[in-house]
From TrEMBL:
GO CC field: cytoplasm
Disordered: region residues: 323-353
Protein name, as recorded: Ribosomal RNA small subunit methyltransferase H
Reaction(s) the record says it catalyses: cytidine(1402) in 16S rRNA + S-adenosyl-L-methionine = N(4)-methylcytidine(1402) in 16S rRNA + S-adenosyl-L-homocysteine + H(+)
Biased composition (Basic and acidic residues): 323-338
SUPFAM superfamilies per record: Putative methyltransferase TM0872, insert domain, S-adenosyl-L-methionine-dependent methyltransferases
Alphabetical keyword list: Cytoplasm, Methyltransferase, rRNA processing, S-adenosyl-L-methionine, Transferase
Gene name of this polypeptide: rsmH
Gene Ontology MF term list: rRNA (cytosine-N4-)-methyltransferase activity
Main location: cytoplasm
Role, per record: Specifically methylates the N4 position of cytidine in position 1402 (C1402) of 16S rRNA.
Amino acid sequence: MDIDNIHDPVLLQDCVSLVAPALRKPGSIVVDCTLGLAGHASAFLQAAPEARLIGIDRDAQALGLACERMDRLGLSDRFTPVHAAFDELTEALLRLGVEHVEAVFMDLGLSSLQIDRNDRGFSYSHDAPLDMRMDQTQELTAQRVLAEYSEDNLTRIFRDYGEEKYARPIAHEIVGQRGAHPLHSSLQLDELVDRVIPRFHRSKGNPAKRVFQALRIEVNGELDKLARTLPQAAIRLSVGGRIVVESYHSLEDKTVKSFMVQGLHDDVPEGLPVVPEDAKPFFKELTRGAKKANEVEIEHNPRSASVRLRGVELIRPLPERWKTRYGERARHDDETSIKRGSGKNIGANKGRR
Ligand SMILES: C[S@@+](CC[C@H](N)C(=O)[O-])C[C@H]1O[C@@H](n2cnc3c(N)ncnc32)[C@H](O)[C@@H]1O
């Protein structure tokens, strides 16, 4: 398998320019929360020869390929792979004895390896079991979502995560037919959506695209995990450290933006004449809103069409009350989040740092 050409990293140079300045000091640490095939990660290490990288991915196959690539590029002595979901960031760093890091990077969503693996059911263009798990050890699959969720819940998922106008009729059809004909395969789901959405109301592309995307987000708890991870990253960041995120879905970008904005403004009621030192912003914006890919990149790498890249730098120690808020939020979200039964398997591969 030619690892270098499976997945084309999106906005690679922009990401390197945002992350590498935080990694100038010897021993600096960058965490790539979405290691994938190490396209971005290897470029960070090449641009920052004094830095180490901790690469997290919940997909064991991607981790294996990333390790091969790092070995081949002679970077493995500065690389620590971790098999975990990225919302286990705090736990993963504690296990590695790491208190602070200089950069945290996320390139959300699926890698081309996952999209192209026909047996995972991510794609409507190949018939496969309705699985869609990024982590094969978790219990919740797309098939279970379709078999067990209520019509209201399915409607919410298709509407909110897929922005699907026919969310309710699709959910209604799924619930109506599943007693007699449970859905097992991506082709069955594709055909069901095709039956429900009127032909004259279809936009470009496969009409099932939005339903597949919504199911993938739900199965993998993508938005909950993102919202839980950003505060953990802020708590672990050194002053001068950076958080850089690439999102591909409007709800992901909204989550990233609203998290970053909290640290970009004075934390006082409007109109207060003097702002206490402790209430002044703790982030500096690095991207002036969200950066998008230009036409040349989109032409060369269609995955980049929906990217929104945002970055902030921590300009002073995170105020204590934000540490408390962030810590409490992470705990609260943990308690209320849907249990996906992820097989926790945090830890560096033996023999690698
Ligand atoms: C878009 S790919 C990253 C590609 C990578 N930047 C590269 O250049 O090769 C996203 C990766 O993040 C992983 N991922 C997505 N959500 C995750 C999560 N919650 N925890 C850990 N890994 C996750 C996926 O398994 C996938 O391998």
